[in-house]
Structure prediction request, 748 residues.
Amino acid sequence: MSIFVHARVLLVFGDTNIRKISEIVKYFAIFNPSFFIKIYLRNLNNPNNMKQLLFFFLFSIIPSLSFAQALWPIAGAKTGDGIICKPQQYIGNDLDFEALIVTAKEGTPVVAPYDGSVYNLDICARQSWFLSKHWDMLEGTFNGRIKEILDSKDDIGIPAKYLSGMVFLRTSEGNIIHISGLRGDGFLKTGMMIHRGDTLGTAWYSCRSFKEPSIIICMYTSHFDPLDPMTPFGLKTTFVAPKKARPPKTLTPEQAKEDMKILLDAYKECYPSLYDVVTPEMFTDFESKAMSELEHGISYDDFYYLIHSAISAGFVHDSHLEEMTGIPHAGEEFLMPHLHIGFLNDSLFVTLAPKGNEKFLRKRIASINGIDAQTIIDRAKGMQAVFDQNSSGSRDMCGLIAWNYIYGKDVHTIKSQKIIFSDGSEYEDEWVPRYRVSRVPNPDSTAYHRLVLESSKREYSFKMLRDDVVLFSLNTFELNQIQVEDIADSLKALGAVPVMIIDLRNNSGGDEKVLAKLLSFFIIGKPASLKSYMKVKSDSTYKSFRYAVNFPQNEVFFSDFTAKKGADGYYLKDRVLGELKPDSATNYHGHLYILTGDHTSSAATWFPAFLVRNHRAVTVGRETRSGYHFITAEKFADIMLPNSKIQVRIPLVKCVFDEETVNARVPAGRGLIPDYEVPLTYEEYYTSEEDIILNRALELIDQGKYLGDNPFATKKNNGILHLVPLLIGLAILAAAVLVGIRIFRKPQ
Prediction:
C-alpha cells in the first residue's frame, strides 16, 4: 500500500482497513471535491500515488453512483406493471424505505435485470415487513431447499406458503440487486454467472403482509447502503436517500449526557460480552467519570474522543466494535509534525523524518513538550481499539504507525513540539500543513505493504514456492460456492505436495459456513469435541434499536435462541463447527504451517484455532486480533447518537468457540498465540523487502520443526500414559511371582 494511503489517510485515521480507506476516498471525492482535486494536483508527479488514487476512485466511487438501465424482472410485463408498494409508502404500520414490491401471477418467470454473478442465496419466511427467519443456501434449487426445511420439521413460524427464495446479484459495476419472493426448480449457485434476462425463479409469496403473489426488489452499494430501486428501470422515483448527518460544534450538558447514556445503555442491552471485557464496577466508574466531564457542556471534538474512550483499550473494546464516524477534521487542511513518532516494546522513537534529516530515524525519545515517554505511550495505548481482550498483535502495529495517537485529542491543536531525546539532544519541530513535507522511509516497496495491497485485489491464490512447499494465500472467508469448489480442485491437484503454508495475515474473516467447508478439506479423523454456542441478550426486540440506522426498532433477529436456566441471555448451539468432519472428496494430508498477523481476525482466527486445537497445524507469526475462546460478531447494530451524530457499531452475538479449554497454549483472554512467534520490528513495516514471517516458516520447514507434544491431551489420558510403564512393571512382577510360586511349590 502506498505512502499516499498510509501517511495521508491511514495514519491520520489510525486504521488499516482497506474498505474504510476506500470509503474515505469516496466520501471526499463525492462530498468534498475540492479536497479530492487538491490531492490530485499534489500527486501529479508521483506515478505510484496517482495509480493508487485512481485505483480507489475507480473501484470505490464509480460503482456507488448508479446502475445501468435495468430489464423489468417480471417476464412478459411492461416496465412498472404490477407495482403495489414503493419506497416511502407504508406496509401496514411499517415504512418501506428502500424496496419496490411488484405483484405477478403465481408461477410467472422472474428474470435477471442485469448481467452479474450470484452473490448470495437464501430462503426466507417473512412474517411481517420487519420480522423474518432465514435459512442459508449455497447451491441447489429454491424448491429443493424449501422441501429440506419442511422435512426437517423446523418451526418456520408461519404457513409454508410464505417460504420463498431470495437471490442477491452482484452487477458488473459492483453493486447488489436483491430479489425475493421466488420459487422454482432452476439450479443456482453462489458465484454463478447470470445474464440479463436469465430466469431466476418464479413469482411466489414474498411476505405475509401481502395476500397476492409478489416479489421484493432492492438495490444496494457493495457495502449494502441502500440505493434507488426505481430510477434504474426508468421509473419516476419516490426513493429518498439517507442524508449525511452534520455534527454540531458543541453539545449542551443535556445533549452530551443523553448521547452518552444511549451508548452505555446500548452496551448493557445489546452487547452480550460486556462483563467478559469489563467488570460491573469498571462500568459504573467509567459512567460516573464520563458524566462528570459533561456537567458544563462539551465541544464536539472533545466529545468525540470521550466516545472513543468508551470503545477503546481502557473500557469496552472488541475486534468487532467500531466507532464508524471519522476523526474530526480529517477532511480538512491540518498540521502535522516533521518527525512522525511511534513506539514498540515500550520504546518511543522517530519512525519517519523529512529527507535530509535521516539522522533522526529510530532515535529514542525521552519526552515531548515536557511529557515523559512512558506517559505518552500509556496515553496512546489507551486509545487503541478494535482488538479482543488482551490480544497484543494488532496493538503493536498500531503503536508503530498511528502517529496521531501519540498526541491524543490534542493532535488538532498542537502547532509545535519540543522533543528531548534519550541522549539529551533536543529538536524544535514546527508543525506544517500535511502534504508539504516528503518523509522517509517510503514503505511502498516493503513486503508488508505489497502483501496488504495484493490481498485487496484477490480472495485467494496458490503458488509453488519450491517442489515440496506450496503457499495458499487466503485473504477472506467471504467466498461463493464456485470459489470454494475452485479451492477444492486446487487442493486435489496439490495433494502430493508434502507441505502447505496457509497465509491468513491479511484475512479479516467472513462466512462461518465457508470457514467450516474449508476446514473440512484439512482435518483428519474425528475432530475434538468443543463446547461451542452462541449467546445474545434478548430473543425479542431491543429498545436501543430506536437509534439504529441499519434496521428498524421492531426488528427481531434471535427468535430461535432460548433461555437457559440459571444463566442470563439466550442461547443457540453452534451447529456448524460442532458437526465438522473431513471432506471425503477433498482432504489434504500434508503438513500445515499457518501464518497469522495483526490483521487476522474473526473467522480467520478460528480457522487456525480449530486446526491447532486438533493438533493438525502449527502457526507462525503474531497473535490474532480476535479472541481464541470467543468473538462477538454475526449481527451488528449501528447506533447513531442523536445529538452528536456519532455512530458506533455494536456486535450482538457472542460466538463461543471453545469455552472449556484454557491452558498455556490457549490462555484466557487472548487471541490465538502463534507456536512460533515472529516479533514485529521497525524494519518489517518500514524498510524490509523480505517477507520476514514467510521466511521464518520456510526455516522451520527446513529444520523439521512441526508438531510437538499435543498441548490438548486430556489429563485423564495423560494420567494413563504416565502409568503405562508402572503397569507393565507390575504385570511382569506379578507374572514372575506366579512362576516362582509354581516352581517352588512343594508336591502334596
